[in-house]
Amino acid sequence: MPQFNEQTKAAPLLIDGIANTEPARVPRDVLFNGTTGRVPRPLGFPTQPGEDIKLTVYWEQPNKTEIFQRTYTSADSQPEFPFPITPQQMSVDGQAIIYYEWLADNPDNSPRRTLIIDHTLVPTLEEPDFPDRNLYGYLNCSSSPPIWEKIRVQIGPESVFEELDECVLEWQGFGTLNGAPPALTPLYEFRKILTRDEALNGFIMEIPFDPYVKPMMNNDSGRAQYTIIRNNVPIAKSKAEVVKIDRIIPGQDEPCGGFA
User: Fold this and answer.
1) I need a surface site. Which of 2, 44, 195, 238 has the fewest CB within 10 A?
2) What are the pLDDT digits (tens) for 120-162?
3) What does DSSP say about strands 138-140 and 241-246: parallel, antiparallel, or unpaired?
4) Which of 88, 117, 146 is where one domain is finished?
5) pTM listed for this prediction
């Protein structure tokens, strides 16, 4: 990685919505909406026709990439020069370095800014529901629709939902009644893009029986939790909910839906 002269002439980079601290944590609204960086006008900005200067903005995480480049002339003079920082550029958790370079005759690099990117969500949305379980919290051989066909997961409306949001439902089966290990299935994901009506009124997602439910037979359970994603950035997460699963029929050798 190149080492930059600390005695740079370029002024520090400013970023809307992010504190001018080192390092600086990127707020959640900036992560999923994006923001604008602002580069102050340099002392050596062109003053005569025919002169130009090139601005390049670099992002390192850890690889160095150019996220903005433009050449300016004396006609473009202004106090600062904005450039976009998109949610996609901030989609990877960790530390990112951002800085810019003016280039006329000699390169002039700005101080490097460290941004802390963390999309970790604290569950704040209500847990999903299993509308077909009985009063004792079970899905069993008497459930409707039949458990050997599918499990329905109901997600109620939340004020944060918007049309075209993506709901990612996580599902995993366990060999206990309370969603605790041992796990009987991998952690599966089911995805859905919300319509306007679904964002306003809630919706149902379906989990097919095989292979997602079939491993659970007697005194087992399934655990569901969902995340809302907007512009490829997770913005909200639900609490988890557990449903008990019992596919044993008294007096029968084989569970309803068959053995796994």
Assistant:
1) 2
2) 888 999 999 999 999 999 999 999 999 999 999 999 999 999 9
3) parallel
4) 117
5) 0.68
